[in-house]
Amino acid sequence: MSTNDFDPAQYKARQVQTWDDVAAAWDRWWPTIEKGAQSLSDYMVASAAIKAGHRVLDVATGIGEPAFTAARAVGQGGSVVATDQSPQMLEIARRRAKDLDSANIELREMDAEQLDFPEASFDAALCRWGLMFLPDLSAALDNLYRFLRPSGRMVAVVWSEPAKVPMLRLAGEVIRQHMDMPAPPPGAPDIFSLAAPDSLQNAFVASGFSGVKTEYKTVTLEIPSSQDYANFTLDVAGPLAAAVAQQPPEIQASIHRDLEQAATQYASADGSITMPNETICVSGTK
Ligand SMILES: C[S@@+](CC[C@H](N)C(=O)[O-])C[C@H]1O[C@@H](n2cnc3c(N)ncnc32)[C@H](O)[C@@H]1O
To answer: What is the pLDDT confidence band of residue 239, given thresholds at 50, 70 and 90?
Structure first.
């Protein structure tokens, strides 16, 4: 294997480490994340036609969304199985389930490409900002299709192209000015892997889903200052945060300074930052 070959097993091991490393930061910044993203979980649950009594699967749940929103919708007569491959993310999700007294959520450490559930055992499946990290998306979607009962709904959300996602694009641009970010080998997924308009929709169709539909939603990051924006991004943006954390302190400081500066184009008179970011929402029915 040449050094440019993509090794999915190695990539996934790195992903686990990356998300484990930022899990505590996700917990810390959760009010900021959910101020923008809760509306997306609400939309996903509605679009998946989730109702009281349903059994729902959430893939790559992180610290628990959209699983917790789905758990409220299904009520005590229903249940949610929320999966992720990062033990640290799940640890925080478990604590949140306890704090929120959510007895109808089961959290399980599972690779999204190795899920193992009986056929037709869920009414709906959800994934918020996870599918773009999968090396074998079609195998994962084929499985999810199998786990759904007939007429069950799948709803997934991924980031749109960089020009429409300033929250992540600015970070990528600034980081590349300060350090080498080798292009990923062909086949390696990344945060924008499914950003082309029809990518995810075509994958849903290929796995057998019918009535497949794409909608675009805006998730607005609202944060008190450009300094907070730089702190936030370098804390929570998994793969980018991981790359920066390996740099010497002076490079990290330069990245932080320039990121702060770059964010000022989104500043109001009081210095607060408002950044609209586009997500692609795809839904389909079994
Ligand atoms: C951007 S976070 C999204 C978390 C959550 N769904 C949310 O929207 O708040 C991406 C999550 O995908 C998970 N992930 C990445 N690759 C995965 C895989 N192969 N199997 C399961 N989870 C994976 C990461 O561990 C991380 O928790």
So the answer is: confident
Distance in Å, CA 268 to ligand 1 centroid: 32
Q: What pTM was estimated for this model as a whole?
A: 0.96
pLDDT at residue 61 is higher than 80: yes
Peptide bond into 8 cis (omega under 30): no
Quick one: tokens of 241?
């945060």
Distance 270 CA to ligand 1 centre (A): 34
* C-alpha to C-alpha distances, 149 to 165, 197, 219, nearest whole angstrom: 35, 28, 31
Tokens of residue 136, six digits: 């074998």
Nearest CA, atom 27, ligand 1: 62
Which CATH superfamily does the domain covering 8-161+185-219+278-285 fall into?
Vaccinia Virus protein VP39 (3.40.50.150)
Residue bearing the CA closest to ligand 1, atom 16 = 133
Query: In the Cβ-directed half-sphere of 111, how many Cα atoms lie within 13 Å?
Result: 15
Helical H segments across 75-157, by residue range: 87-99, 137-147
